[in-house]
Amino acid sequence: MNKIAVVLAALPAVSLAQTQVVKPPIAHYWMSVETAAGMAMPGMGAMASTMGGMMGAQASGGRRMLLQLGSQQTAQGEPRAAHEIPPGMDMGAQLPLVTPRREPARRGPEDREMPQQMEKPKGRMLIYWGCGTEVRAGQPAVIDFAGVAEGRTPPGMVSRGVRAPSGPAFGRSRTYGDWPNPEDAKQVPESASLKGDHRVKGNYSPEIRFALSNDFLDKVQLSESGGRFNWKAIPGSTGYFAMLWGGDGDDVLVWTSSELQEMGAGLMDYVPPAEVARLIREKVVMPPQATECAVPAEVVNKAGGSALLQFIAYGEEANFVHPPRPRDPKVPWEQEWAVKVRFKSTASLLLGQQGRQETAREPRRETRQEAPPASAQPDPVKEGIKALRGIFGR
């Protein structure tokens, strides 16, 4: 073997391969598909959903979808687009994807004036983690709201980032449309099925065609007694995660099912399968074989009847790209469109069978009082939101 051959053999293969030119899709289409049980709330992020439930926001279970079309093309005239759905959806022939109208920003009184002095927040956030009836050594981690308001970051706080792509959004794409919308916000029937042929067409994106064999995940069957809860394994789930919020006077109690300290930010939402697998390896997410967990008795006792438990089963994804990637690396891959369909199943309940409905309604009665007591639950919960925003910049 001559010297040149030896050198070439030592080089990584990738350095010798032809680099293929890849042009991103003109249009992205995302379907976010949820099966909700219990008190789960649509259209809210993880923290807002939890806090809304703690303060008595009404919600019901069911099947839900969020359809989002983003394109780098500009519509000729008024943007128009629609998703033609399979007959098994039982929702008509198509769902309109409506482009939101831009509203001019309005300044309210709170934008014109900022109070010179603000009352120092009271209370703390006590953070627990791990399945089991006993609190583990080193818990709870404590966030003092007054300290956060003064700019002091609590030492030793841990919250892992979740790597996930950003989907289409109004303002992120040149033209955008979604469903549900003011023109069509019909409910998804409990019997609806996604299986079959789908077509998305409009005057600002290439025509999109794909077929789904995936369907809505099964509904979570969650039961609880004395802080110990269990569920039936959900076919197609990639993993599970649970978290709890409660109040104890001026303090907010937080618990997650993670084996390691974890705030749960970003985990009560869609998480890509590869990320779920990583978080299972790190013992943050429960594996798909898990069917039970327990909240430590200390947390349950401190929260009394006010603890809200939220649970999520992550699902697989279906991804499509057109046209397929050319095998010849010399041929550019000029993508016309890409589709992502993601799935989850969620549930939430108030711990403790007795007085469950009364507890759920209590915060709503408090909001009608002219002067709620200082120990009323919504106050520490609001301070918890402010604290989290201060720590994580959200």
Detailed description of the structure:
This protein is an alpha+beta fold and 394 residues long. 19% of the residues lie in helices and 30% in strands. The chain has nine helices and 18 strands. It has helices spanning 3-10, 13-16, 46-54, 109-112, 145-149, 273-281, 297-303, 356-367, 378-392; strands at residues 22-23, 27-38, 62-71, 81-84, 94-96, 124-129, 141-144, 175-179, 196-202, 208-212, 222-225, 228-231, 237-248, 251-256, 292-294, 308-322, 333-334, 337-350. Strand 13 (237-248) and strand 14 form a beta hairpin. Helix 3 packs antiparallel against helix 9 (378-392). The model is unreliable at 4-8, 40-59 and 353-394 (pLDDT under 50).
Keywords for this entry:
single chain, 394 residues, alpha+beta, nine-stranded mixed beta sheet, elongated
**Helix-strand category:** alpha+beta
Low-confidence stretches: 4-8, 40-59, 353-394
Q: What share of the residues lie within helices?
A: 10-25%
Gyration radius, in Å: 24 Å
Largest sheet: 9 strands, mixed
Shape annotation = elongated
The fraction of residues in strands falls at: 25-35%
Number of strand segments: 18
Distance between the termini: 61 Å
- Please give the count of helices: 9
Give, in spatial order, the strands making up the sheet with the most strands.
7-6-14-13-16-18-2-3-8
What do the pLDDT scores average to?
A: 80
Run of helices and strands: HHEEHEEEHEEHEEEEEEEHEHEEEHH
